[in-house]
Design brief:
The protein has 440 residues and is mainly α. It has helices at residues 16-46, 48-52, 58-74, 76-89, 92-111, 116-119, 122-150, 158-163, 168-186, 189-196, 198-202, 204-216, 222-229, 237-244, 246-276, 282-310, 312-334, 339-367, 373-389, 391-402, 408-427; strands at residues 9-11, 436-438.
Length: 440
């Protein structure tokens, strides 16, 4: 008899005090992972080319930097398989300690790395290796953080608890943007290139200590404990994912595209595009991104509450439809290149994809059963991240082909919106028979 042949086991969720403690630890962990990851995105857009690819012209160096950025996305499915297996076999908590530790050490090590002038061709090679390590770590972080929060809560509160770890992405953006903004205002360009760029990476070491402290203090989820005591863990979770939920994996990948891809488009490609084509300064772009991210600190919890009421999949669908409707008007307005319009673009273009982002964790948790849920969430999210990691490169190629026509980023954002909208509508119709359920 297999786990899926057994009758469901209902386990009580953690009490609210414990659940709140867990979701705080989960949120802090995703914030620090996002910070570590986004530091490199800002670095790629601004400093990577002159420091690690100085023998190339600026355009070629920028493309190589974006390729390096994309490498970490390409290895994330491998990280999802590795850490997804561990998360479904040894537990959510223990696996997340590994992911945050690996990410923090790799990020801090980049801040210690000699550049091309000091080490030659070995410098970009080592940078690529550390970026790959970051990607492997992040492949197992998101799914585990969502599960750590949701599997301590009852099913009826899953939408809200799944939304709270999503705050990690804007918090990571805020920390990164604010730090780079501070550095660019206080240091000269020469100092930034000489040593200032290292500071955001080195900050990863003390932040790692904070995250490890919080994660060590929490308990394993009730659902995973029940899987262990009833002997319902999958032996090879990644194989069981595709055996039991093949269609749901495709739906989850498409549902995640807008939430992840819009960040990749707005926070990486738009930085380079805003300076080289639209004529904004880096300071203006950092400020606009910071304002948009601060707003998400309010909207993501609000959308999580909405997900409890109408369902996470419907929240994602509303966000995807809204983004599709405003995409081309938003990019047309951006061509007027004033700072208020830039801020408005970041706000409007951020709120609607944020709906899709806030509801994503709940949508994906509802698609998969407990014994393979860590692997399933991690694999689907990582494949979507691979696609999203290529967005800056693909958008740049589209810009080259169209002469940087004002509508070229809109094509990319509209396509992401259509795929996510279709997936969220399908997700509303999928009902998964779970083997272990947390319910009051």
């Amino acid at each position: 008899m297999t786990a899926t042949d057994l009758e469901p086991v209902v386990v009580p969720p953690s009490n609210r005090k414990v659940a709140r403690k867990v979701v705080i630890a989960s949120f802090v962990g995703t914030s620090l992972e996002s910070y570590d990851f986004y530091v490199f995105a800002y670095f790629s857009a601004i400093f990577s080319a002159p420091l690690f690819f100085p023998e190339q012209d600026l355009a070629a160096g920028t493309i190589l930097s974006f390729l390096l950025l994309a490498m970490s996305y390409l290895v994330r499915p491998l990280g999802a398989i590795i850490f997804g297996h561990l998360g479904d076999r040894i537990g959510r908590k223990r696996t997340l300690l590994w992911t945050i530790g690996i990410m923090g050490i790799a990020t801090g090590a980049i801040g210690l790395l000699p550049d091309f002038a000091q080490l030659g061709i070995l410098a970009p090679i080592l940078l690529a290796v550390l970026r790959i390590v970051q990607g492997l770590s992040l492949g197992g972080e998101w799914g585990g953080s969502i599960l750590l929060a949701t599997e301590h809560a009852s099913y009826r509160r899953r939408g809200f608890y799944a939304a709270l770890p999503q705050l990690g992405s804007p918090v990571g953006t805020i920390l990164t943007g604010a730090l780079f903004l501070l550095l660019t205002f206080t240091l000269s360009n020469e100092d930034m290139l000489a040593w200032g760029w290292r500071l955001p990476f080195l900050l990863a070491f003390p932040l790692l200590g904070v995250s490890l402290y919080l994660r060590l203090a929490i308990d394993e989820t009730p659902i995973f404990k029940a899987l262990v005591t009833t002997n319902r863990r999958a032996r090879i979770p990644v194989l069981d994912v595709f055996r039991t939920h093949p269609f749901a994996v495709v739906v989850a990948i498409c549902a995640a595209l807008l939430g992840i891809g819009s960040y990749s488009l707005m926070n990486t490609y738009t930085l380079a595009y805003g300076v080289t084509t639209l004529g904004f300064s880096y300071q203006e772009l950092f400020q606009a991104t910071l304002i948009g991210s601060l707003l998400q600190l309010v909207t993501i919890p609000a959308f999580g509450i909405l997900a409890n009421r109408i369902g996470s999949a419907r929240v994602v669908a509303i966000g995807a439809l809204g983004t599709l409707l405003i995409t081309f008007p938003m990019y047309w307005m951006l061509q007027f290149a004033t700072f208020p319009i830039l801020v408005g673009t970041m706000i409007i273009g951020g709120i609607l994809p944020t709906l899709a982002w806030a509801g994503l964790g709940g949508l994906m948790s509802d698609l998969f059963s407990g014994p393979v849920r860590y692997s399933a969430l991690s694999i689907a999210y990582s494949v979507a991240a691979v696609i999203s990691g290529l967005i800056p490169l693909a958008t740049q190629a589209l810009a080259n082909a169209t002469g940087s026509a004002w509508w070229h980023p809109g094509i990319v954002l509209a396509l992401l919106s259509v795929l996510t909208l279709a997936a969220s509508l399908i997700a509303q119709r999928i009902r998964v028979r779970d083997e272990v359920i947390a319910e009051s």
